[in-house]
Every structure is written in C-alpha cells, then in structure tokens.
Amino acid sequence: MAVVASVNFCCSGGAVSYPACSPKVLNCRLQGLASLNRRPSDRLPTSRGFSSSRLGSSSFRGVHLRSTTQNGSRWHAVWQDNSAMVEVDVPLGVAWDLWEDREGVNRWMPWIHSIKVQEDKPELSKWTLRYAAFGQKLEFSWLARNLKPTFHQKIHWRSVDGLPNRGAVRFYPRGPSSCGVQLTISYEVPQVLSGVSSALAPLVESILQADLQRFAKFARQYSLEKQPK
Question: Which residues constitute the signal peptide according to the record (predicted)?
Fold first, then answer.
C-alpha cells in the first residue's frame, strides 16, 4: 500500500489535514483509543454529513464508556465511513439472498469470527470481530439490529450495544446474470482521534475490498453449484 502523506477529515469545524502516521505511531494511538472512556453525544457529525441520532450506553473492549471526560466536558464523536464495491457475476437475487443470510456473512469476511442471530428476537444478532493489526490482537463484540431493508436494493444494520458501528450493503442491477455490490462500514470514534481513523481509512477499505472479492468468488461458485445438472 502506498504511503499517504496526509489525509483530510470533514467535521463540523470543516476539513482538517493530518499527516499520515507510521505503523508504530498508529499502534500507539490505537492503544490510546482502547483506553478512552466516552459515550456519544446527542448530535453525531459524520465524515460525510450529520446524523442527529443518539446511541445508547456503549462499551469498547468490554469497558463501559462514560459520557464525559475527567474535567466534566462531553466527548464528541464522529462517524467514519469506509466503502468498497465489486462487480459480481451472479443474478442480483442470488447476491441478495447470500447477504440476507446474516450468519453466513463470515464466509467471505474472515475477520468476523461469528454472527449469531438471537432466537427470541431474530432482528437482533451478536457479532464478534477478531483481527490482528500492528502487532495487536483485537477482539470486539456488539449486538446489531436489522434495519428495514429496501428489497433488492439495500440491506443495513446498526449496533445497539457494544462497539458503535453500522453497515450497509447496496445492490445495483447490471443485467440478468450480474450485479454490483457496495459494502459500507461505519464506526464511531471520538472527534479528537478523527485524524487517526482517517489515516486508517485506506487500510480498512482495502480489507473491505478483499472481502468483496472473496464474496464475488464465493457467490459465483455458489451459483454454479445450484444450477441443475
């Protein structure tokens, strides 16, 4: 991956430029992020606009996130969006069905260790993430709620407990036997660390792109196996 000299991040105060960090520096800042205790503010700006929603009580690595800093001021958080897209050689309906099977998503997203749909509330699912980066083994879990889908256009979800994040998969028809699939993953970080999350964006998006490439191969093989002999 090419070294980024600087990255831009848009927030309520406008665009800010940050120098890119070396892996060693990023590692230190990631450890600092894990030690922060904060809770999202009532109004959350996003990296591409604003959202007025408020999340409930949150935790990071199992640590409860409080609403204020030591001096009594409230942490302000921003949403960092990361997206990737791929062309898939299967009918849109096949791609849709595969993503709608929430527990099967980790077949092409190996950093998602497991997804367990709640038996008593099938609109909720428990996600567990495991990933190694910069010499650190990261593990997070969260409870996500399925949001109302737009049939054959959009599947999306949002965490309701645990690591604050949200995701969306959008589908674009290309013809009777192909479609485009776009994956967007967004996560919430304290505004003071927005430069770090922006510097990490190319890494995150390369991971998502690799996931979608795996999905394209998986979907193609799945479609071939389902064809009548």
Answer: none
